[in-house]
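Second attempt. The first submission of Carbohydrate ABC transporter permease had a stray character pasted in from the spreadsheet, which I only caught after the job came back as garbage. Lesson logged: always re-copy from the clean sequence file. Corrected sequence (305 aa) follows.
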Amino acid sequence: MTSISYPPLAIVEEGIPNAKRSRRGRRTTKIRGVRAGTWVYIGLGVVALSAIFPYYWSFLIGSGTAATINDPNMSWIPGGNFIANALAVVNDPAVNFWLALWNSIYSSALIAASVVIFSTLAGWAFAKLRFRGSKWLLTFVVATMAVPMQLGVVPLYILFADLGWTGTIGAVIVPALTSAFGVFWMTQYLGQTVPDELIEASRMDGASMIRTFWTVGVVAARPAAAMLFLFTFVGAWNNFFWPFIVLDRQSPTLPVALALLQSNYFVDYSIVLAGVLLATIPLILLFIVAGKQLVSGIMAGAVKG
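This time the job returned cleanly.
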């Protein structure tokens, strides 16, 4: 290898306008970063307040009584009935809270894991493998996102009714095991992140395509896979339309179970919003646990890419 000779440090520093001499006669370079202005902080504050206010409002109503939401002189200080209202939700036999919570956790985690696995495999195939009709097939997959889910509800319900799956959590999990958006997301990410030269070098070293995918593709796809898992989990957790149609009161998910709180003639919104806050606690914990790892993974992928 040929050695590279660098110019003396003094010559380099002479061309730096912000270079300053230290006490020992050496020059130190001062790098000026771009600081955020006042309006940036104001804008971020408005966005943060806009995101936090619905939670505070729900907690404000959920910690009051049934008459709190209609009180014109309502105090903006939370009351002391939140625990009582939360216990009313948990202990309501019509809601079946703990079974609904387990169904939501189980189905959302399984759906998110399945979407990540299949989307990563399909994305690797579309991005790095050459086969006939790949572009047309990818176009067809993306085009399916333009079809509303409501158009397929009736035939899908008839199918699961014939299979005897209505009223079971499997009817919610199976239709969501794959995602057209997930395939498109991983295809774009792997196509831009993994260079073809790296795959060719791996194949020249004797690695099979499966081993190349496992050692190269999976490692490179971790940041995008983490984001896809998180967003898919949240979407499956908040899904109400299809579970409300195909499930019954004996085996609901959490959004379906909380909807039963509004099935009476008189709706106590303090209990309803207390239940809504209970349903958001697992999502908040998920973001707290995975948020730092998610951001660090994205930054690592950006630097390595």
